[in-house]
């Protein structure tokens, strides 16, 4: 009988621990790979057992786990711990809800630690936790929220809110255990924790919304700057055009004068042709007009910023935007991050040349678009192309070499983004293909 | 083999001039079998010709902007390329319409001629392009290289197998990276299906499919595979030992 009760206790404990890891992997798929799943299983099996003798050892276990699996991701400590706490809170709160539901329906007296009640608790626990996890996941997946996740402040606020919630929750639990308040008051603890969570949630929401307003303001200022640059470009072209018109009229006048004077040599015609050869065409269109037509403001912003930066560095630039190029909104944040890194690398690499060149194009095809960045590289530079995406590999002095490995990570987390890298005839080309959803 | 030349240019004076230039080339090269089969201002006529003569050998001289027609030159060229992979296309256009990278990816044209360079220069560039076209006419069919075919989205790609060093995959993605001397290409596929397509390749481990013909040496000290072109690829010590046993490559 004793062994049986240990076995039942052990299996429920094990199932709870496993649930914790299921929720964790659900919340952040980046953790989920075969190795981590094995580690999680081993830890669950060993530490659920040890937990029987040493209460609280599972806490140490999860710390070990955090340290082990953080290596396989690019998460910061704060995000990793946040995910852990979130998973812990979800499983722990649902466990309490499950117990309190059981107490409500059977009453405390009749409740013996039987196998049946443990099974019911585990089942309810699983259902509620998974439901909650899916709800949270769905909530974060919505476009408007996930795009702000790249902002450090927003992530910080969420992380801190989660940590505070955990602290409050733990304090509440410890106080309840310490005062030996009977199980029937479990519902009150739950209500108190619900109130705490709601209050902290409101606080976090207020902080985040004020931060979002700030972000919006920043992007509006940026848009304004872009527009000013465009207007300046227009003005410059207008002045050039006026000058050209003026010259042209003068030539026509001298042409008619020479016709009247029957000048057979026709010097003025030749002069006119020479002038036209030199001036017509090359500079008279608005440069990159289609760039300003690009709908996606994030992507347009990064392109214009880097174009201006490159021009200020005296890099010869050629930017081509296909007229019907359409950036899928879902990928816009990721594309912007990738472009930022690729542009920085291309500009930096091209500057080693006497005549640096930077070419960029967005090309639309049916079903996909291509974004191409091409720069010239220093002759005789020997790059092992297989290495460039490895963390820490760099051809530049005093450079971390982190950029391209970040690009690789973003690419690997989204199947619609594909990367091609080419290194040929003194040019380095990267092509980012963005597939449209089928 | 008859080379059919198609001209599409909306300016009549220029079109006549191109015709005159090409006729001059034909006259001075009597041994070459070619003729101007179509010279028009209307891109629609070009598409009609494409549909009715799919198997002809063609050389296109195309303007980019046709104000009279709804069709843009780049769209015309793209549809030509989709129908005929071997068609030779030369763009003749003004500088501001010139977007070489877009042309390159969509059309892979033989050349671009900028109208600003003057009629004499246009003529000499056009003659060069015709020369290149004629030289390429004959041997193209006799090339028989073994290629690996794949797709990125709807676009088909071809890659010579002996240029491939290895394929690499990552956990949690549905894409594979092809590594060659100077190119890395990512495309949607799995190592498993590639393995069946290329039975000669060796699955070094779960995420690596190597072309054994291109391995130069195995560097046990640094745990690396060195390929003929001197690029390298990291590999774990255990896998290295297995690979060595498998291939008996002298170190």
Query: What's the helix count of chain A?
Result: 12
- Largest sheet of chain A at a glance? 5 strands, mixed
- How widely separated are the two ends of chain B? 52 Å
Arrangement of strands in the largest sheet of chain B: 2-1-3-4-5
- The percentage helix of chain B is 25-40%
Oligomer: heterodimer
Q: Evaluate the radius of gyration of chain A.
A: 32 Å
The arrangement of helices and strands of chain A along the chain is HHHHHHHHHHEHEEHEE
Structural class by SSE content of chain B:
alpha/beta
The strand order across the widest sheet of chain A is: 1-2-3-5-4
Global geometry of chain B: elongated
What share of residues are in beta strands of chain B? 25-35%
Radius of gyration of chain B from CA coordinates = 24 Å
Count of beta strands of chain B: 15
Return the structural class of chain A: alpha+beta
Number of domains of chain A: 2
GO molecular function (chain A): identical protein binding
Protein name (chain A): Sensor histidine kinase NatK-like C-terminal domain-containing protein
Keywords (chain A): Membrane, Transmembrane, Transmembrane helix
Pfam families (chain A): HATPase_c_5
What does this structure look like?
The complex is a heterodimer of chains A (438) and B (251). Chain A is α+β, with helices and mostly antiparallel strands. Chain A has two domains: 2-220, no CATH class; 288-438, Heat Shock Protein 90 (2-Layer Sandwich). Helix content of chain A is 64%, strand content 9%. Chain A has a five-stranded mixed β-sheet, covered by helices on one side. In chain A, strand 1 (316-321), helix 11 (332-350) and strand 2 form a beta-alpha-beta unit. In chain A, helix 2 (34-53) runs antiparallel to helix 3 (57-70) and helix 8 packs antiparallel against helix 9 (267-279). The longest helix of chain A has 75 residues, at 186-260. Chain B is an alpha/beta fold and 251 residues long. Chain B folds into two domains: 3-141, Response regulator (Rossmann fold, 3-Layer(aba) Sandwich); 147-247, LytTr DNA-binding domain (OB fold (Dihydrolipoamide Acetyltransferase, E2P)), CATH 2.40.50.1020. Chain B has helices at 12-28, 43-52, 73-83, 100-107, 119-137, 191-197, 237-247; strands at residues 3-8, 34-40, 57-62, 88-93, 111-114, 147-152, 155-160, 164-169, 175-180, 183-188, 202-205, 208-210, 215-219, 224-227, 232-234. In chain B, the strands form four sheets. Chain B has a five-stranded parallel β-sheet with strand order 2-1-3-4-5, with helices on both faces. Chain B has a five-stranded antiparallel β-sheet with strand order 10-9-8-12-11, covered by helices on one side. The longest helix of chain B is centred in the middle third of the chain and has 19 residues, at 119-137. Chain B is elongated, with a radius of gyration of 24 Å. The N and C termini of chain B lie far apart (52 Å). At the A-B interface, strand 2, strand 3 and strand 4 of A face helix 4 and strand 10 of B. Strand 4 of chain A pairs antiparallel with strand 10 of chain B. Chain A: Keywords: Membrane, Transmembrane, Transmembrane helix. Chain A: InterPro entries: HATPase_C_sf (IPR036890), NatK-like_C (IPR032834). Chain A: One of its GO terms (molecular function) is identical protein binding.
